[in-house]
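FORM 7B - TANDEM STRUCTURE REPORT

SECTION 1: FIRST PROTEIN
SEQUENCE AND TOKENS:
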Amino acid sequence: MSTILELKGIGKEWNGQMIFSDVNLEVSFGERIALIGKNGVGKTTLLSIILGRVNYDLGTVNRFLPLPEFGYLEQELQTHSQINLIDFVKAGIETQELNENIGHTHASNSARVYKHLKRIGLPENVWDIPYCKLSGGQKTKAQLIRLVLQQPKLLILDEPTNHLDLKSLLWLENWLCRYPGTVLFVSHDRNFIDQVATSTIVLKREGTKRYAGGYSTYKDQLSLELKTKQALYEKQHKERQKLLDSIKTYQTWFEEKSRQGEKKELRSRLAHRKFTQKKLRNRMRAKEQELNRLESRIIDPPTEEPTFQLNLDAPQQYMKTLLRLENVSFGYTSDYLFSDVELEVRRGERIAVIGENGTGKTTLLKLLAGNLPASKGEVKYHPSLHIGFLDQELTNLNMNQPVIDTILEFSKMSIQRAQDVLSSYMFGPNDWSKLVGNLSMGERCRLSLLQMVLSEANLLILDEPTNYLDVQSREEVETCLQDYPGTLIFVSHDRYFLRKIANRVLTITDSRIQKYLGTYEEWVHHSNVRKKGLDTEVENRIRQLEFRLSQMMAKPTHKFGSFSRNADNNNILREIREVQEEIAQLRDFGKGKT
């Protein structure tokens, strides 16, 4: 495979501190490379260096493709005009055609745009909305369709899965796996990395390291590395201790002989003793040299990178039912997002809410948390219920407040205690006086999680709790929530997270909420079995219709396309068309089209 991008020894400094150094990366045509690393390590900065948007301080960048053949999906694309969604997407095609001197008609371009927008789930009623006013998921989809239509040779994607629902995630995975070019992407979605990546590159402050395969393969290789390193560390320290003991034995022997001094002894014995001393001294020097060689190559003990320690607790719960929805409907207009919902949330449940973007998942969480009133029906809460709510947009945080004041205001504790708590959540002394608005989204998410810990709630309602967290932090949150003694209701598109946490599933489809008592994996299996059953029914119906069609077409008195103009023949013609239309609709259904 030919190399299309090469980075050698790249280093970047910011405000007198190195963000990262010794970054080496080689990208070959056809690869799909995942770039992972902790929040704040500089992944987006590295992508900007590759794209020529940010200067670097050390190393060299070799691009073997012209920059116009790079396609870039930005994590937070800012547009300074009121350009609407449809024009935003078309502008990407026009740029590509200017670069490649391709001429397409306006009509053909529009047809391509309309087709892909509908396929990814951007209906006509959002096409005229300004890009800057779209939701996070709609912005990501719009950028993706622009890239689909441009077909750049190198795709660079910064967090492409953010805000996407499960259906869109599956579409993106399939599209990238079939993509004829090269892909370099940043993501914290472990399932997505497993499905898409051919290699995984870990970025740390001291450089990069490449692993073959996706995230699960990387974790297996990393675990083996740590075990191998631990075994080598223990072996080296055993050897070191053995050498030290041996050298100490020689030193003790020489000290004893020195204290005894030289006694009058036979010349032959004196000569033998001096010979023995010389031989032992040479052996001790050899051991010392061996120790020096060992210490020059001795390794540090293997350690995993630090992460914040999330410890959630909840008051002991005696109530069986925490809240109940009785005939509840809700809508921002006269059209309800969901209607006539009957739902009981019981102690110890971990309920995952699943649905496509725009179906009302966040609205349902806000309604359950008491932040929105029901349009119809009633939400009843147990009097001992204490809810902790994590909003997807983190609106519970005051952007103009210092970090430490956020904690002091939320709970009654001393400044010293607040500093200790913040430190355990990876907020160092330099962060305590920072305004919340100057934190990264990952840092804000950690701060919101800390507030939730301090609240001692017995029901946690979480809207995309891992959306802005790096992989290591996600795993910490998962571990903590698995041990949480309270009740959970959450929205997430992270399939690893869903598999580990959920023991009940709510799905929102066509304004209806369906309930499934079981884990996420059980729900997926149930859905697949149900879909296979539907597919079998569809295939059987198609066969029946095709047989009926062949009967009508094979009648001896009629030939297709040359019917007599009598009423009977007109009826048969109409029935043939109806059968053909139903067959076409069923085939589209089988392909997943709507």
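SECTION 2: SECOND PROTEIN
SEQUENCE AND TOKENS:
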Amino acid sequence: MSRRELGLLFRVRLGKVRFFSPSSTASLAPMLDEHTYDSNLTAETKILDKRSAETEHSYIERNCALFPLVVRVIRSLNWKAVEKNSFSKAVEKHGLSHSMDAFAIIIHIFSSAGLRREALNLLQDIVCYHKNAIGDAFGIFDTLVSWSLSLKSSSLVSQLLIKAFAGSLMLENAVDSFLLAKKIGLEPSVSSCNFLLKCLIERNKVEFVRSLFEEMKTSGPTPNVYTYTIVMKFYFKYGISQAEELLVEMERNAMSPTVVTYGTFINGLCKAGDAELALIYLRELRNRELPFNNYCYNAIIHGFCCKEKLYEAMMIFEEMKSCGLSPDVHSYSILIDAFCKKANVQKGLSLFYEMVTIGIKPTLVSHSSLLDGLCKTGQMESALDWFSKLEALGFKHDHTSYNIIIDGCCKHGDLDGACKYVNEMIGNNLVPDVFVFTSLICGFCKSGCLETAMKLFKHMLDKGILPNIVTCTVIVDGYCKEGLVLEAFELMDEMLRQGVIANLFMYNVIIDGLCKERKSEKAWEIFGPMVKRGLVPDVVIYSTLIDGFVKESKLQEAFKLYARMSKDGITPNTITYTSLINGLCKNCKMREALNLFEEMNKEGVRRDKISYTSIIAGFCRSGDMKKAWTLYSEMIQEGFSPDIVTYTCLVEGYCKLDMMDNAIMLVSAMLKDGITPSTIMCSNLVSRLCYNIRHGALNLFEELIRKG
């Protein structure tokens, strides 16, 4: 059968040609009967087609085995017959050109008959072949249009082609198809353009999104409310103002936003961190009697929860009820998760039982939030019990619930329990992921089982599971705590080769490890390479290094770093100041230490119990008990309760000056506060009392004996 004959048959099926003479009908009868059709061309047909090709520029395919399939589809619209013949297999047997022609006809048949899903499936098959086997999709559009019999047919198929390209992430081809369709006078449907916009947004093709949207507004198809809603969600990535402009534009075009549009706008405001503005906007919708729903309220509740404003979130939750909207499972789940993350598991449980009471069935997400809260607050027995009851309630544990319970076991030292749940997880056909391995590795490192942790790490790599930055940091920290800093460096280099780039936290672990080994100079050496990799040192890293230099009595280097961090615009924190004050005090530079201590107040850095104790200890060592007592009194006024270290410094300071009345008074206050003196303090105090028995000293001595 020639292409001309096939084309004629195609037109007959679509009602484009009528046959009036019996001879013409008879000549087509064999073509309509697939059982009498022979795929091997007869000599007569070959001669006929050869002549036809010379006059009508047609051609004869070297193998026409696909034409019976086309005939079958034309006669019966049999999808199953087509489904068995994939495009790639057709190309392999009959060549690309012939396969494209045959499939193009079938696609037009299906789309014209209203079987658009089938037509789309075939187009996706063609597009997939071109993407994987050829690398481009040049010519698909032209071939499809060449077999079209009407403007409507071309328009339908071009729309489906846009969707097929977009769904296969061949987005440039999808945009090209849109432009080609417009060029030849076809009008793609707004639904196909909306689908293309969604796909472009998902792949963050910013310029394509803007260009397509503007093209739609300029020359069609005219954007509808769903188009604006899709683009609004995208515009929120680049600021609230652009999204607001879209709402104004919709009103200007007399287009009524739907509840989905308003929900998208409110959710966008919340994600942009402005839950307060979102709440004002929602209340305005209510006042204007415009549509809103649970999604709008849930978005705002979630926005306030993200800001840890749980009281406000609960107020909005109650407001939601008062305006006639019943909270759904998402409303409750958002609040349960937020309270559990703030360690208020009791409130989470209260909301959970309230939800159950009113007939809302909790999801696995709701249960997982409570499970996580119980684990993080150390209520492991309750967590294990809750976990075991979930299956009885008909839930099937997923990766999230297993990750939570395994991590909880590891953090609370129950490594046997963690391993039991890993085995159970595998038994349920769930493959342990990087989070499970990281929890186990962390647990074994904390238990001092670095060797076991490393075996797990190797097993993880052997299974093809790439570690993340947390996994690597845990191992590095484990090495450093064992004094194996060199091995930690080697792991960092290996992970860099694997594509895991060290972050500030990992560098701080290494720096801290070196500083604890009294190798602050070595720690300083990795400061430069860290900066070269584009990492900007933060206050934590500076403070760690400064503390390292101070502990090695390298005050000059410590203050150089202090000057550098100020120059780089990094504000020192309480730890930074306390380290420097400690260094100055140990070197008897009390005036400089006091100036730095007062500078903390001027710079708005809050002084804590440790910083007060450091400066008090310095004055006690230098014998200036008057200043030490003044600072001690100031510390009490600031609301800080002295601890064993503060009392010890003061008592020893008074003992050295033989001011035993003051020392005895402090020990009495200490005992009254429920703080037991250390053995060293008791020894020093008893030694002094033996030389100088004072009023009340014997009673104090007896009380010290009772305290052990």
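SECTION 3: OBSERVATIONS ON SECOND PROTEIN
The longest helix spans residues 116-134.
Confidence is low (pLDDT under 50) at residues 1-63.

SECTION 4: SIGNATURE
Preparer initials: ____
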